[in-house]
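User: I want to check something. If I give you two sequences, will you return the structure for each one separately, not as a complex?

Assistant: Yes, each is folded on its own. Here is the first sequence with its structure:
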Amino acid sequence: MRVEDLRPLGLFDGLTDDQLVELIEAGTEVPVEPGVDLFQEGEHADFWWVLIDGALDLVRHVGREDTVVGRMDTPGRWAGGFRAWDEHGVYLATARGVVAGRVLKLPAEVLRDRTQVWFPLGGHLIAGLYGTARSIESTARQRESLVTLGTLAAGLAHELNNPAAAATRSVDALEAACQMLLSSLSRLAQHEISAAQFSAVDALRREVEPAATALDPLALSDQEEALTTWLADRGVERDWVIASSLAAAGVDLAWCDRAADVLQGTALEPGLEWVASTFSVATLIADVKESTRRVSELVAAVRSYSQMDRASMQHVDVTEGLESTLVMLGHKLRDGITVVRDYGTGVPLIDAYPGELNQVWTNLIDNAVDAMNGGGTLRLGTRSDGDAVVVEVGDTGSGIPAAVAARAFEAFYTTKDVGKGTGLGLDIARRIVVDRHGGTIEIDSAATETVLRVRLPVRR
């Protein structure tokens, strides 16, 4: 390449021949061949590429296909070289040859040095512009994270809705059961049963409660049918209502015969209805307790996950953080995903920022679930290792190729389609683990399991 090749380019207006010679000597002439890539999207932008002649397409991977986002077909157009101003600078697109030609390939460090010597003000302006571009990209990532937060919130709402709806149904049924209980007591009073009779019926009721067992559906149906027939033969009008509650409580025909001996005549129906109502009320109260307990557990998990009303630096149980994260991602751990907990004994508390660590666990678990594509085993392990605690998140998915593992912790690097994942890259996970906690994070991709291994010091 000669000075005469660069002189016509408007990009180099104002440079002397000696300065152009410096660029030529420091750079390399690279041919442009149709269909051949000069550099790849996401790679470190270690070189500055200036088009001399020919044409290049700038291609970005969007979704599942490559999209042309621009074309370099005018001599003097340039791309890359971002590491001249930012050590984390990467190529924003892939340059693919379209028309045969050539480019000047100049190392980014040479571009930085020459910029500082020849026009320092311009260098400062370029650095500021690049910083603004990175800020815009970061804001876009933040927006993606907010969308992910909405997804987590929707999943949590689904988890809360199930026990809340169950509690609502039980309360409605409890109201009806209480009304039937009061009505049956009123009818017993009208029949003027004696105190001895009522005490005997209550004693029979208490016999049933401790022995109440859950029958299989077929046996329960047979028992309910037998009780319905027994009640109908004795003129009980609401036999279907009473029989279902008695059968669910485990009442048999022998018990009914004993109750009939105590409740003679017309007092039989209200007496048995009262007993059945007490069984129904006890069952529904247990359902409400279980549902509200589940809601309380979910709320506690959210508080643990978000670290609301807690100090930033705490003595942290990593197991608690992993469990609260599983609750938050419960909507993704449905059919096909088996969770194996391999928690070690005697794992000490560590000095850490639990809210930030929960973000790390969220990213690692979410990545593992996505890698398994709906089916596989998710393994969470903890163990003590000298003066540190090791946390492992393993999956039986498709594994991580060596080329991807080598760049997995780079800023803005992702292999997921738009809208997939948590929006939290492994680069941020690395910053939290390494920079904030003084630990390490590494990938161990074997044939049977891919493991993300985090090592955190017990004391800062």
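And separately, the second sequence with its own structure:
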Amino acid sequence: MKLESLRIGDLLAKVPVIQGGMGVGVSLSGLAGSVAACGGVGIISTAQIGFREPEFDKDPIGTNLRVIKEEIQKAREIAKGGIIGVNIMVATRSYEEYVKAAVKAGVDLIISGAGLPMTLPGLAAGTNVKLAPIVSSLKSAQVICKYWLKKYLRLPDMVVIEGPKAGGHLGFDKEQLEDIEGMHYDDEIRSIIGYVNEIAVANNKEIPVAVAGGIYTREDAEAAFSLGAKAVQMATRFVTTYECDAPMSYKQTYLDAKEEDIMIVKSPVGMPGRAIRNSFIERASKGPIPHGKCKLCVSTCKPGETPYCITEALVNAVTDKTEDALLFCGTNAARATKLEYVKDIMEEFR
């Protein structure tokens, strides 16, 4: 099967691969720029993006907003004219400010999930920034499209379907994630794509749909394309690349992981997530882990009640403290056996 180029409005990606946003600090300018330079769509995660800066502890949101611009600029230098986007979670505290910062910095594309991005079109109004909501169900796709059309006279430029095999926080309940095969999720993908195509035609617009979750090889991508997708979003495969922004200690956890090490965890922000089993998860299951000052990450977290600080746990993952960290991953993390170059992965999907 030939994989056609991906067109998102006036943007053209020669390789129909979107590199998924991974935070904290896993997909920054280095990885995103490299994927974009190879013809794909490079995505920077804005989640606590300023964690390395000395003023982060004192002013996390202000620091993040400044670093968003810096990371986009650095990615542009690497991308050689390729497409650079950001992933901004709806659950992010001061979500609107993050979106405005990315728009002001001239990003090409904003992908937004972890909630329904109902206000996104208004925040990017009057610009050429492309907007792509993440959905996990037909209902969420319908709600977003109908609301955007009525409120803003606008439809998404792309839709990303994130399935139950993805990494990080997931839009499914624990019972569903424990019986993925029983979900028959391919049927849901077909329904979402059918709806998006229908509303696109009715409004004389092209809206490509990307499928995410469980995409690791060309064969996986072809299966998604056979369902009607125009692109795939892939994250886990890019973690074990030389260009990934995470340190080698983080990548090594993927290289060492076995299938039985990948598990569903209860995140302190109120959503289930998929991660690699380690001593931190075992300790967290036995009782609260003391944490410092709130880093103002997501609006769903209650600092006084949280069993651990998810910002601290995710920052530990990318600062060589992997046994004190939450190590998010997709179902395919155990398939990683060696480091790869981004260009070689992208060549596989041409």
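Because they were folded independently, the notes below concern the second chain alone. The chain has two domains: 6-246+336-348, 248-334. Residues 248-334 form one domain.
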